[in-house]
Each structure stands twice: as structure tokens, then as C-alpha cells.
Design brief:
The protein is mainly α. 78% of the residues lie in helices and 0% in strands. The chain starts with a helix and ends in a 5-residue tail after the last helix.
Length: 188
């Protein structure tokens, strides 16, 4: 994939990064960050393409499912029975959920869907999604494009150790959200 990006004209490479980020293309984005580290692509171009593409992808799920999802899920008895509690909980935590969604690839569709179901205000979702997209793109561009894997090795994370850092962070966040989510519902 890096070869495809490397052999393409710059504008096409940024377009590929934009489309890939919108469609769950973290591999292509990371590959483009490697090309940034080699001086073959502009850091700002890659950052803007990934941030805008990723945010567009999240917003597409949100706007497509807005209104439709509520009607569809209303037919599921368990969801319909707990609708008010779910909506209240999602609205209460929507800011954190939206900001975290870019960093949680496995929940990238679920979070915009939940926000659409809870009728989170469109402007709030759009602005927070853009902010999250820019923080995500900036952090990956800096870590992969400028700091690189040698930074983790200097910090004592070599070989397999550095592979577990993102997994540990994702599991820690999921554990924290699960505990927060369970505390938000009163027991029947």
C-alpha cells in the first residue's frame, strides 16, 4: 500500500488518504505517515486529508442513521423498554463518546449510531467530530511521522512490548466506559 501512495502524484495520494480515512483506512493513513517521515509527502497534507476524511466518515453514519435508527430499534422490545434510560445515558456522555470515537476503531460506527439514536444535536456532533478528527490525525502524524517506533524503544518498549500499548489503552478505555455505563443505570 505504501508503494501505491509513493508512486502516485501527491494530490492523488492525499485523496487516497482522505477516502481511506472515511472508510476505516487507518493502515493507509499510517503508511502515509511513514512517507511523511521519509519526506515524500507533506505532513500538513496528510494530516488535513486524514482529519477531514475520518470526520466525514463518522458524520456519514450519524446523518444517515439519524431518525431512521430510532424507528428501526423501536421494534426491538428490550431497546424500546429501556429507551429513555439509554437516550439519557448517551446524551449525558455524548461529548466524551464523540471525542473518543476516532481513537476506538471498533466503536467507530457504534458511537455515531448511538448518538443518532439519542438525537444528539447535529451541530454538537459535527463540531466534536471535527475536533476529534484533527486530534487523531495530529497525534498519529506526530507519533508515526516524526517520532516513529524508535521513540518507544528509547522508552523501554521494544519488540512485542510496543504492540501491547494500543491494546492496553483500548481495553482500559473500554473497561472504564463499561463501568461508567453500568453505574448510569439504576437497578430494577
Amino acid at each position: 500500500m505504501t508503494l501505491l501512495l509513493e508512486s502516485s502524484p501527491e494530490l492523488v495520494a492525499y485523496l487516497v488518504v482522505f477516502v481511506a480515512a472515511a472508510l476505516e483506512g487507518e493502515v493507509i493513513f499510517v503508511s502515509s505517515c511513514v512517507l511523511v517521515s521519509q519526506g515524500k509527502l507533506s505532513a500538513m497534507g496528510v494530516l488535513l486529508a486524514a482529519a477531514l476524511g475520518g470526520s466525514l466518515g463518522d458524520q456519514a453514519y450519524f446523518y444517515i442513521l439519524r431518525g431512521r435508527l430510532s424507528n428501526w430499534l423501536g421494534g426491538i422490545r428490550m431497546v424500546a423498554k429501556n429507551r429513555e434510560r439509554l437516550v439519557t445515558h448517551i446524551r449525558c456522555h455524548s461529548t466524551r463518546m464523540i471525542l473518543a470515537s476516532r481513537f476506538l476503531p471498533g466503536l467507530r460506527i457504534a458511537i455515531p449510531s448511538a448518538c443518532a439514536y439519542a438525537a444528539v444535536p447535529s451541530l454538537k456532533f459535527t463540531l466534536l467530530s471535527l475536533c476529534s478528527g484533527f486530534v487523531w490525525a495530529t497525534s498519529l502524524t506526530v507519533f508515526v511521522g516524526f517520532l516513529g517506533p524508535q521513540t518507544l524503544a528509547r522508552l523501554g518498549f521494544g519488540g512485542w512490548g510496543r504492540s501491547f500499548i494500543p491494546v492496553a489503552l483500548a481495553l482500559g478505555y473500554a473497561f472504564w466506559m463499561t463501568r461508567r455505563f453500568n453505574r448510569g443505570f439504576p437497578k430494577d
